[in-house]
Write a structure and sequence with these properties.
about 25% helix
Length: about 600
């Protein structure tokens, strides 16, 4: 009988998207929904037919069922363009002088927190930015356009709190002109000095707006003097910096400020090549539950059009929709235009450069890992330190960056933070799985767990904490770190006793008598024994008697008896030092 040759079955390779419903996964695997749900349950994941699971989870389930998986898009490497690379392109374009046409100036407004930066922008565009922001501070980066004398001006808004210096510098790195807002009733503050140094270093044209001039204690001349001391000289003082005295709240001289911006833009003469393929910088990105990955960009040169294949760092896609800053759909975005782009596979990183890619398949360039998360450490930790291991998810990249920056500034010799994973979007089951293996805390900022992830976390005992105000999040993390610190032991000496007699000597206790030479003896206190100017041991006072009566305290000059508990043998002539120790919570 002929021998039957057995052929090993090669597992079928299935392409999986970054997120898929249980029903869709069953269809891709050609299996019943019941089989897929059963396999999920074997992995301690409870998910209903219409719930979405992430790529990692779907891949594990498919593998357990005998399938090989791959990301839905083919993997093609594309060079990443940096800000420095874009600046080189812009310089070459400017030097060539070819196809150049005027473009609107890009303006950023900078200033110390509470000096009126957001109010100024509100007044300029007649809308309220921070009303919807938890805590009333602008926590995201945004861009807008206004029209004056039929000419456009682009404003880039960056957060004003001191913790957001990296985001402010990002605003500066793409701006043509900076408006430095200084409050007339407050003057130059630390953050103002930081901005001035940056402006000088990067030689960025600046207009000073002295705000709140309508307040009773406004002193604009004093502000000018302070700015002069930091190297900002105004035109009327022989310098080259324009100054506008305004009231953002009272809408005073706002038109004059806009006129000055246009005047400075005319002098600087900003041009770009509108006919080339577009290059844009990512100001902000997030993962919208309905619309998918969304990127707010600012076009630096060229034109971005619907239907173009684009890459931005590790993200890729085809532009399926462009919106202007008002949310209106547009077919293309030209230089200096802020726009929202839909069509990326994942949210690109802030500061990534969006570039149009030519050639078959290049627009499907795949990141090195589907839905990749940035893995890093907040601090280089000493293994001796107690630490909080955590995963961080945020709604947008800018918030993620700001939180990492703030938490990274927390330093201690005894405790540490270790960030093992971070990313943009909802908290998913992959995050819970990582947290489970690392015994980590999951923290979300404007980011909630999916229903599947929530059930997984409850089943595995993983703690998820969510916040909508950055400073509440930071305070909570600091409090957790503080709780890890060993408490400070504060010692308070109350008195001393000179031992005159020993009445009883037991194995672990003694009764001695003496006179209080300093302060007072307090019952229940700790005792140190001093002999010949040397501490020879310690113990505890179990009882205190005066005139054979129990006493709570005995003052200086009086004689008393002490019941001592400890292993030291007290002798006549020793001094007993009476003290208490209190445990005090420390702070970072």
């Amino acid at each position: 009988m002929a021998e039957i040759e057995t052929v090993e079955k090669i597992p079928e390779k299935i392409s999986l998207p970054s997120s898929v419903t249980v029903k869709k996964l069953s269809e891709l695997l050609h299996l019943s929904v019941a089989v897929v749900i059963t396999e999920l349950m074997k992995n301690n994941i409870l998910a209903t037919i219409n719930e979405e699971i992430d790529f990692d989870t779907a891949s594990i389930i498919a593998s357990d069922l005998g399938f090989e998986t791959e990301p839905a898009e083919e993997k093609i490497e594309v060079g990443r363009l940096t800000i420095e690379g874009l600046n080189k392109i812009l310089d070459e374009e400017k030097n060539s002088g070819k196809n150049l046409s005027p473009r609107p100036p890009i303006v950023t407004i900078l200033g110390h927190v509470d000096h009126g930066k957001t109010t100024l922008l509100d007044t300029i565009r007649k809308t309220n930015v921070a009303a919807g922001e938890a805590g009333g501070i602008t926590q995201h980066i945004s861009a807008y356009q206004v029209k004056k004398h039929k000419k456009l001006i682009t404003f880039v808004d960056t957060p004003g709190h001191e913790a957001f210096s990296a985001m402010r510098k990002r605003g500066l790195s793409i701006a043509d002109i900076a408006i430095l807002v200084v409050a007339a009733d407050d003057g130059v503050r630390p953050q103002t000095k930081e901005v001035i140094e940056y402006l000088k270093e990067h030689k960025l044209p600046v207009i000073v707006a002295i705000n709140k001039i309508d307040k009773p204690d406004a002193k604009p001349e004093r502000v000018k003097q302070e700015l002069a001391e930091h190297g900002i000289l105004f035109e009327e003082w022989g310098g080259d910096t324009m100054c506008t005295e305004i009231s953002a709240k009272g809408n005073i001289n706002i038109d004059k400020l806009l006129d000055n911006i246009l005047l400075l833009a005319e002098v600087e003469d900003f041009h770009s090549d509108q006919k080339r393929d577009g290059y844009a910088i990512v100001l902000e990105s997030n993962l919208d539950p309905q619309k998918g990955p969304v990127a707010t960009v600012l076009v630096r040169t060229g034109t971005l059009k619907v239907g173009q294949d684009v890459v931005a760092g590790d993200a890729f896609g085809r532009i399926r929709r462009i919106e202007d800053f008002t949310g209106k759909s547009i077919e293309s975005a030209v230089p200096s235009v802020p726009a929202t782009i839909y069509g990326f596979n994942v949210p690109p990183q802030v500061n990534d450069i969006v570039q149009v890619v030519i050639g078959k398949g290049l627009g499907r360039a795949k990141s090195t890992e589907a839905g990749s998360k940035k893995m890093n450490k907040i601090q280089e930790d000493d293994s001796e330190k107690k630490k909080i291991v955590f995963i961080l998810k945020a709604d947008v990249q800018g918030s993620l960056e700001a939180i990492e920056q703030i938490l990274g500034a927390i330093k201690s010799d005894e405790v540490a933070l270790e960030l093992i994973s971070s990313g943009v979007g909802a908290i998913t089951e992959s995050d819970i799985r990582i947290a489970e293996s690392a015994h980590a805390l999951v923290i979300g900022f404007n980011s909630e767990p999916t229903s599947v992830a929530k059930r997984m976390a409850e089943g595995s005992g993983i703690k998820i904490e969510t916040f909508n105000i950055i400073y509440k999040l930071v305070e909570d993390v600091k409090e957790k770190l503080t709780d890890l610190l060993e408490p400070e032991i504060v010692r308070t000496d109350s008195g001393r006793l000179s031992v005159l007699a020993v009445f009883k000597t037991g194995k672990h206790d003694m009764i001695v008598g003496g006179r209080v030479s300093e302060g007072k003896m307090l019952r229940g206190s700790l005792i140190e024994i001093k002999r010949d100017d040397e501490i020879i041991g310690s113990g505890k006072m179990m009882n205190l008697q005066q005139n054979k009566q129990n006493a709570d305290e005995v003052n200086q000059g009086n004689e008393c008896g002490v019941v001592f508990e400890g292993n030291v043998k007290i002798a006549v002539g020793d001094t007993l030092i009476c003290y208490k120790e209190e445990s005090k919570k420390r702070s970072l």
